[in-house]
Amino acid sequence: MANLKTLDEHREYLYQTVKLQLFFLRNWLREHPDETLSAVLRNRIDIYRKTSINKDLLNPAEAKFECPEWLELEHRLESVYEQYKDDAPAFEDAAFAVCKNTIDERVEKDYNDKSRTAGYQCGSLRYNEHEDGLKHETISFHIANALQPESFFADPQYLPQCFLELMRQTAEKYGSTRLYTGTWLNSLPRWLELFPQEWQDNLSLENTDVQWHYGFWGQFITARGTFNYKYGEIMRQTGKMPFYPKTSSCSFETLKKHLKEKYNVSD
Q1: pLDDT class for 164, splitting at 50, 70, 90?
Q2: Domain regions of the chain by residue span
Q3: CA triple 27-209-140, angle to 5 deg
Q4: 92 CB burial (10 A radius; 0-12, 13-18, 19+)
């Protein structure tokens, strides 16, 4: 059985993720010269929520990008970029030094934050709640590993049962008959095995317009919640993420049939 990560491991996860995002920031700006450093910091990477400037939980309701502390950090990173934009290692080292103290101030609060899977109604799956009393034929869902430090792939029947419960609840509440999501997992063969051919047929093209959320950056987190060095190294070697999000959808009917046949589960 996997061990829970330690506080030191969590600190290292934050350090390595921020360093990788700084690597990404420099590459992105060189490839997109019309975009500002501020725009990348606010929209494409999530350094903000890994700092003590984020007074909220892991997923803040609102990012306070206009607060003085954040504006100062942005200004300092702008100066570092202008000085070292042609020297990748020097930029990453100097930029991380700008961020390190505020990350250190956040570490313990981040480590003890239990909100990661708050509101997940179906194990490792969460659907969007609707209070309008209307029928919602297609239900959107989100994914998180509620079994940390174990992988949610460890028990082959776990995710199928999560999906069956999601379909049961949303059919009862909203009359839903289809489900939909966009995630990097839709590029992962092991995830795609959970779905029928209809899901495969409906897969979109890869979305390479990187955003700050876990639909992109979740792949750099292991099942234990530590930094995924393997995927981080792929990004450093190629300049690309190992997986990019795709969207897809399928009917409850075809998914239930597939799960029952492949995983011998019943609702």
Answers
A1: very high
A2: 7-111, 117-207+245-263
A3: 145
A4: buried
